[in-house]
Amino acid sequence: MMNKKVFLITGMFVLLMSALYSFGPMRSPASDAAIHLANTAESNSDAIEGPTPAGSAYRYPLTDTITNAEIDTITLPVNFISLYTGLFTAQRINLSGTTNVSMFLDESNFTSGTNNWYTLNTVVGTGATVAIATESELRGLRYRIRLVGSGTQSTRYVLNVTAKKKN
């Protein structure tokens, strides 16, 4: 009697495992996306969301603060291998003083290094507004956002980068 129960339980387990295995490995299409995560991430890498389950978009949110004439440089921790469109926004929230933060979008065609960057887009603005830069085609390999403060201020920014793969 005990052998029948063991045999029955083992048989059910084997059937369950073979049914699960028949669906193939549990992978999202994102693993096939053309975005490859770089080995070096910024200190805020805990705020990174990888490619969405749809596999056609990448999102990078980040919140930080600029004080006075500080410069924050955020390099996206990905290399774009395929063609993408990009939306780069920085919501500026005044904490004190006069908010004056400009956003610069830079591109590089090299997979590493600190040189070889050039500016694609510049958004200059004062006040608690949203800086928006759009690119219809992200043709470079790497991108970074420079947020440059001037004057006397304490300004929080909420940065959002969304890149969608072009068909």
Largest sheet, strands/sense/barrel: 4 strands, antiparallel
Structural class comes to mainly beta
Q: How are strands sequenced across the largest beta sheet?
A: 2-10-5-8
Strand content: over 45%
Q: Approximately how much helix is present in the residues? A: 10-25%
**Overall domain count:** 1
| Contiguous uncertain segments of 5+ residues | 14-54
User: Can you tell me the overall shape?
Assistant: globular
Report how far the terminal alpha carbons are from each other.
Answer: 61 Å
| Average pLDDT score | 75
Number of strands: 10
Level-1 CATH class name:
Mainly Beta
Radius of gyration: 23 Å
Number of helices: 1
The fold-level CATH name is Jelly Rolls
CATH architecture descriptor text: Sandwich
Per-chain topology:
Blueprint: H1 2-22, E1 35-37, E2 57-67, E3 71-75, E4 78-80, E5 84-97, E6 101-108, E7 118-123, E8 130-138, E9 142-149, E10 153-165
Antiparallel strand pairs: 1-4, 2-10, 3-9, 5-8, 5-10, 6-7, 6-9
Explain how this protein is built.
With 167 residues, this protein is mostly beta strands. It has a single domain (33-165), classed as Jelly Rolls (Sandwich), CATH 2.60.120. It is 13% helix and 48% strand. The protein has one helix spanning 2-22; strands spanning 35-37, 57-67, 71-75, 78-80, 84-97, 101-108, 118-123, 130-138, 142-149, 153-165. The longest helix is centred in the first third of the chain and has 21 residues, at 2-22. It is globular and about 80 Å long. It starts with a helix and ends with a strand.
